[in-house]
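tl;dr need the bound structure. longer version: we got a ligand (flavin mononucleotide) that a collaborator sent over and nobodys looked at where it sits. i said id run it. heres the input, straight from their email, havent touched it
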Amino acid sequence: MGSLMIVNASPRAPRSNSKQYIQMFREFFGADVYEYEVTKKQDARACAQAAGCTDVLLVFPLYADGLPVTLMCFLKQLAQQEFLTRPIVHVLVNCGFLEPRQNDVACDMVRLFCAQNGFSFGSVLRVGSGEAILTTPFAGLVKRKVKKLAQAVESGSPYSGSVTMPLPTWLYVRASAGYWLQYGAKNGLSKEQMATMQIEGRSE
Ligand SMILES: Cc1cc2nc3c(=O)[nH]c(=O)nc-3n(C[C@H](O)[C@H](O)[C@H](O)COP(=O)(O)O)c2cc1C
């Protein structure tokens, strides 16, 4: 392969889990890399840079069972970019729920984008419990899969993988509810306040 453009398409890119997955990916990836965070709002420039790359890796969170708007905007720009040879598009998606399959529709959306715009779809890694797994003893599981993804992108042999914490759903739900309630309490919010549509006093 030539060079790779990694796009951090999280709306909170500088403080995102996606950023941590990218750091992990780069530990295992040997070829040239350019990195772009969509929050820099320079999609046109990043797409022009992608035109010189053989591969693009989209790293993003699942939002409402689909793609965050920041990624939609980037893809819109990518579709307008002129290429001599179109890069292969790869995906590393993480979601808050336990099941990696929650990410399937978002992956299909990227596949559809590729089919409609003449890009080849390459490798994919779907991470469940993506918000939590990195700070648990199960972080090694995701590291192993990220390594596989990096090797696949570099070698050009497509890979499709998924990973999550090996826990029963009820335990994951109980632990994550406890985590968020504690987080709310630290910020002076009760369970009842967290259950409303109000965000910092506003509901619109
Ligand atoms: C607006 C919003 C919508 C979300 N929708 C989903 C969802 O549909 N399913 C899911 O499993 N997680 C969902 N999540 C959780 C994120 O995918 C998860 O927190 C992820 O780790 C965020 O990654 P990031 O830090 O790279 O942005 C959502 C989070 C937000 C803020």
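gonna send this back to them w/ a short note. The domain at 3-166 is CATH 3.40.50.360 (Rossmann fold).
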